[in-house]
Design brief:
alpha/beta, Isopropylmalate Dehydrogenase, 2 domains, ten-stranded mixed beta sheet, globular, binds nicotinamide-adenine-dinucleotide, binds 3-isopropylmalic acid, binds manganese (II) ion, oxidoreductase
Length: 362
């Protein structure tokens, strides 16, 4: 049966890394005899906005709703369109409308990559950030008063619902129970944020009673960021609200060498809507157009997408291909500059696709 994938490159390096993800997916599809049917869309980009006055066509829900998955690059060209317009008009609409309430972001120190943290080896850093993805600090509830006067006031509320918190906690606890260490860390700030965060802690406490085999701890977000740097080996599954999860999921991958390798899966676990797979990084306007962006984050997204669609072996083969090329090191493999090499986006993508294709011959 063929899987229908909507491809939305967006802006900047999204356009450079998406073709490498497709190349790798096609290599996996050939090896595992999968039918992947890609359809490309030019909306959700700042150029589309400049031409149409909006980020998405009116019927985007109908256009995208029937796909099995969305493979997404990155959005944002702040010099052309303000970020809150381009992102609220695209990615954040997808997450909310398609109820992708889990944002799953692995942080793993891969073989061949040097962590900026002294003495850390592969195996020392291997955890997931499970980020709440549809509510929390990313609500659009609030407003401006007395605009343009010296009494100007801006208010934006944090919205946390019992259903919203419980469903992300349940996902995180289930994930922790499938991992050997069975450990879950909650990111909180209930010492300073006096209503929503104590409520978050209460829900964690109640959920933990259903999972007596999971070792649960919590840290306030400030010391948690410090512990990511000082003790990344402490973590296994880290569950966080939308904003805290956003911050942790750039910090975690930075500890693993470069944010260029980090993927994310915006998941609707019930499969009622398509899930969306995008790298953690953005459109990187500072390096766009030079063919030096690291394509690994976007390729790993392809692996997570195949796994989500039930093709675990093919997804694992893609990850094995990435690891094999990284392990070869910059003397052997065309690693991009963020990995200390001199390779280009397309050379690295090609090497990974070859490794995926040849996997069973190694
Ligand atoms: P960014 O992730 O785009 O870039 C941060 C830094 O990391 C830059 O120096 C960039 O060159 C580098 N970098 C990022 N990806 C890389 C890769 N694959 N290989 C090598 N280096 C890489 O973050 P930013 O600069 O804060 O944001 C730029 C734009 O992207 C903004 O418009 C922002 O809103 C948007 N953004 C979009 C998404 C998304 O669509 N999911 C995520 C983050 C930021
Ligand atoms: C991410 C990004 C987005 C977020 C931005 C671009 C709105 O940083 O996917 O991590 O904050 O969720
Ligand atoms: Mn982010």
């Amino acid at each position: 049966m063929s899987q229908r994938i909507a491809v939305i490159p967006g802006d900047g390096i999204g356009n450079e890394v998406i073709p490498e993800s497709i190349r790798a997916l096609e290599a996996a599809a050939r090896r595992f005899d999968l039918q992947l049917d890609f359809r490309h869309f030019d909306f959700a980009s700042c150029d589309y906005y400049l031409n149409h006055g909006r980020m998405l066509p009116e019927d985007w829900k109908e256009q995208l709703g029937g796909f099995d998955a969305l493979l997404f690059g990155a959005v944002g060209m702040p010099e052309k369109v303000p970020d809150h317009i381009s992102l609220w008009g695209s990615l954040l609409q997808f997450r909310r409308h398609f109820d992708q309430y889990i944002n799953l972001r692995p942080c793993k120190l891969m073989p061949g990559i040097r962590s900026p943290l002294a003495g850390r080896e592969p195996g020392d850093i291997d955890f997931y950030v499970v980020r709440e993805n549809t509510e929390g600090e990313y609500s659009s509830v609030g407003g401006k008063m007395f605009e343009g006067t010296e009494r100007e006031v801006v208010i934006q509320d944090t919205v946390m619902t019992r259903i919203g918190i419980d469903r992300v906690l349940k996902y995180a606890f289930e994930l922790a129970s499938r991992r050997p260490r069975r450990k879950l860390t909650s990111a909180t700030k209930s010492n300073g944020i006096s209503i929503t965060m104590p409520y978050w802690d209460e829900r964690v406490q109640e959920m933990s009673e259903h999972y007596p085999n999971i070792d649960v701890d919590k840290f306030h977000i400030d010391i948690l960021t410090a512990n990511f740097v000082l003790h990344p080996d402490w973590f296994d599954v880290v569950v966080a609200s939308n904003l805290f999860g956003d911050i942790l999921s750039d910090l975690g991958p930075a500890c693993t060498g470069t944010i260029g390798v980090a993927p994310s899966a915006n998941i609707n676990p019930e499969h009622r809507f398509p899930s969306l797979f995008e790298p953690v990084h953005g459109s990187a306007p500072d390096i766009y157009g030079r063919n030096i962006a690291n394509p690994i984050g976007q390729i790993w997204c392809g692996a997570m997408m195949l796994e989500h669609l039930g093709h675990e072996k093919a997804g694992q083969a893609m990850l094995d291909g990435i690891e094999a090329v990284l392990a070869a090191g910059s003397d052997q493999a065309p690693l991009t500059p963020d990995l200390g090499g001199q390779g280009t986006t397309s050379e690295l993508g090609e090497a990974i696709a070859d490794a995926i294709r040849d996997g069973d011959r190694r």
